[in-house]
Amino acid sequence: MKIIMLGAPGAGKGTQAKRIAEKFNIPHISTGDIFRANIKNGTELGKEAKKYMDEGQLVPDELTVRLLLDRVKNDDCKNGYVLDGFPRTIPQAEVLDRELEKLGEKVDYAVDVDVPDENIINRMSGRRACLKCGATYHLQYLKPKKDGICDSCGSELVLRDDDKPETVKKRLTVYHEQTQPLIDYYTKSRVLHTVDGTVDPDDVFKAIEEILR
Ligand code: AP5
Fold first, then answer.
1. Residue 208 in contact with residue 44, Cβ under 8 Å?
2. S-S: 87 plus which of 31, 92, 103, 170, CB 3.0-4.6 Å?
3. Nearest Cα residue to 71 out of 57, 84, 88
4. Which of 31, 51, 89 to mutate to test the pocket of ligand 1 (most atoms within 8 A of CB)?
5. Between helices 61-72 and 31-40, what is the axis angle to 10°?
6. Ligand 1 mean position, distance from CA 101 (Å)
7. Does any ligand 1 atom lie closer than 6 A to the CB of residue 50?
């Protein structure tokens, strides 16, 4: 099963993708997490990606596409995967479709987690992220068991550099310009499903389970 998560920054793609991955025993692949791990480890890719991410811009397609295509060739992707944050542009979606077609495969579901812009800024300022394992929490809606500490791996939780309100506004603009056209793209290929992302995370997941069942 190959699933794509769509939605604005902070819509809850990562939160839901982790649950899908656990439930269906497939890997959760987040291009944002891969870039953040590279930034943390000081790799060349990380240094390059950071320039764009700190500005709220997309990392160029040529860096992102190769990284993603290499990742989905791994053995753990044989039974499918859930992509979180990829594709983010029409050219990225086209490359993915072409590569899957060569293997006689296709995207099975594109799940759009729909949250209006006005809810996003509040969500992002309350988000706390674990840069080690990628887990995310919220000061109000999804608290860790111990303040400031990741439940999964015990690392310190931080406010992501790109979650400052000015950067979030930029990311929303970029989302509407470059990523939202994917809604039409996947509607045309008849795999698009939209869920209301403003309700409780458990209820968002129930709606997604109904779609994937
Ligand atoms: P990425 O890490 O993918 O960021 P994003 O898409 O902007 O999404 P987020 O991770 O910010 O949010 P999310 O939708 O996963 O929400 P979450 O579940 O955390 O990308 C970062 C950057 O990397 C990009 O800006 C770009 O520069 C670069 N990049 C990545 N992929 C790329 C690509 N393919 N091409 C080019 N560049 C790329 O939830 C948000 C918060 O809300 C959390 O605190 C959570 O606990 C809370 N929450 C979740 N659900 C709910 C709910 N139902 N109710 C209340 N709170 C909730």
1. no
2. 92
3. 84
4. 31
5. 100
6. 28
7. no
Confidence of residue 116 (pLDDT cuts 50, 70, 90): very high
* pTM of the full structure: 0.93
Distance in angstroms (rounded) separating the CA atoms of residues 143 and 127? 9
Kindly report the protein residue whose alpha carbon is nearest to atom 50 of ligand 1: 12
Taking the C-alpha atoms of residue 131 and residue 174, their distance in angstroms, rounded to an integer, is: 23
116, 198 in Cβ contact below 8 A?
yes
CA dihedral 22, 18, 180, 198 (to 10 degrees): 110
Domains, the chain, with CATH or none: 2-27+74-115+177-212 (3.40.50.300)
Look up 19 and say whether it is catalytic: no
- List the structure tokens of 63: 């860096």
- Reply yes or no on whether 88 is catalytic: yes
pLDDT at 206: 98
Q: What percent of the chain has pLDDT over 90?
A: 89
Distance CA 5, CA 156 (A): 27
106/20 Cα distance (integer angstroms)? 18
pLDDT score of 148 more than 90: yes
Whole-Å CA distances, 33 to 70, 83, 180: 15, 11, 21
Query: Is the link from the previous residue into 87 a cis peptide, with omega within 30 of 0?
Result: yes
Q: What is the DSSP string of 79-102?
A: T-EEEES---SHHHHHHHHHHHHH
